[in-house]
Here is the input.
Amino acid sequence: MIEWLMYIVLGAALGTVGGLFGIGGGLIAIPALGVLFGLDQQLAQGTALVMVVPNVMLALWRYHQRNRIEARHALPLAAAGFVFAWLGSLWAVGVDARAMRIGFVAFLVALAAWNVVRMFMKTSPPSSELRHPWPWLGVLGSFSGVMGGLFGVGGAVVATPVLTSVFGTTQVVAQGLSLALALPSTAVTLATYGFHQHVEWTMGIPLAVGGLLSISWGVKLAHAMPEKMLRSLFCGFLVVCALMLGFKI
Here is the structure.
């Protein structure tokens, strides 16, 4: 019972972060499970997904309530993300755990570097309309889906910075669309990891309960923050995650 309460509290903290950055909490849950509980990389990713899937579902609904998500933009992202996340997850379950962890750290470092660079790039004012036609969303969904399936993060962390920098959306619009991409991709990735016995359900379920209790607060906080502050926090968050796992390699 004490363990379940501990997992619920941890899930609540991760859910707040997931709602704040529109990523479902998995990106921080994976290093936390690896560092604090000693899970290997695939098991940490699969267990985190038990929390991420319902968190993403709730966060997507909350984002849509506050800032309507356009179906014509969300559908190509979601469809491509679903197919390529499934392919990425099939690849992930066959990779050596240490190699996977090294790859995950490299992935986080690359994301952090890209987010730092784009903070200093000159860009046009953000808009709710996209700079590029919808077929390019399918390309973004495919790449994000592969990364999400491989590393168990749903692809939102890849899609969000690309949507703001390349497609010219606001941070909040990008996070909402990224959640639309993440929902089907995380679901199929969890199914694949579960089928291959890479999920610790007794840990993942209470994490999910805690996440559901707090993610709405994170979404509310995201909408109240200035755009630049939200991007800066997201960048720092990625660096912290990379450092946490880097000490375990």
